[in-house]
Design a protein that fits this description.
The chain is α/β, with parallel strands linked by helices. The protein folds into 2 domains: 160 residues, Rossmann fold (3-Layer(aba) Sandwich), CATH 3.40.50; 54 residues, Ribosomal Protein S5, domain 2 (2-Layer Sandwich). 29% of the residues lie in helices and 22% in strands. It is built from 6 helices and 9 strands, in the order βαβαβαβαβαβββαβ. The strands form 2 sheets. A 5-stranded parallel beta sheet has the order 3-2-1-4-5, with helices on both faces. Helix 1 runs parallel beside helix 5. The radius of gyration is 20 Å and the shape is elongated. The model has no long low-confidence stretch (mean pLDDT 94).
């Protein structure tokens, strides 16, 4: 039976910190936090979430990625987060290469089997947060929802909003042979309205409803 504990399984590179083109954080000058990550994680911790870092680090400890090059930036990252009240109960690092095809490598659950065997946390209230499709696959393998960070997903403020603010969101779609209409309203977000009906003046009038009502409105009508 699932308990009340809530866990966020959080990716590192491209999620907590910017990922460089060579995909290795092996020098201090490469370490850069994603915008909004500190405030978002503080919000999550205050809401009762436990944090577990889960990261693939290709070839860590080999000549291509010496342990010492990884250790310094990683220690600094953990120090920065800890200084802001953000502490991880576990840091799980897979060191294999993709070609090794090990179950410990995301989206495999080899590093997380002790969580799968533990009924003391709520799958429904927990999530995987990451920037890649492998993170979303890991979420499915764990039986939790996946939240994607970055250009293909959300920013950290939006993720904290979804996790912590019990968003009052409604989505309605109406499709006929002639038209396709989709409306999404989020009463707890003041994001800029996004309206596209094909009629400029009508778009403007509908946008004013969201803008002056103080809620997020997304509406698209085709046909």
């Amino acid at each position: 039976m699932n308990g009340a504990r809530k866990i966020l399984f959080v990716d590192r590179d491209g999620c907590l910190i910017e990922e460089p083109t060579d995909e290795q954080i092996d020098r201090f000058e490469k370490l850069a936090l994603l915008p909004g990550v500190i405030a978002a994680l503080q919000h999550c911790v205050a809401a009762g979430y436990e944090l577990v870092m889960v990261s693939n680090q290709d070839g860590l400890g080999t000549a291509s990625f010496p342990e010492a090059d990884f250790a310094g930036p990683q220690a600094l990252l953990m120090q920065i987060l800890s200084s802001q009240g953000i502490r991880f109960r576990e840091v799980l690092i897979d060191r294999s290469f993709p070609a090794d095809a090990l179950d410990t490598r995301k989206p495999g659950v080899g590093m997380l089997r002790h969580y799968l065997a533990d009924d003391g946390w709520s799958r429904a209230a927990s999530a995987v947060i990451g920037d890649r499709e492998t993170d979303m696959q890991l979420a499915a393998n764990l039986g939790v929802r996946g939240l994607r960070v970055g250009v293909q997903g959300m920013d950290w403020a939006q993720i904290a909003h979804v996790l912590c603010d019990a968003p009052r969101v409604a989505v309605i779609e109406r499709n006929t042979r002639e038209t396709r209409i989709r409306v999404r309203v989020d009463l707890d977000s003041d994001a800029a309205p996004e309206v596209c009906t094909g009629l400029g003046y009508f778009d403007h009038m509908l946008e004013q409803i969201g803008k002056h009502g103080g809620f997020a409105l997304q509406l698209r009508a085709d046909g």
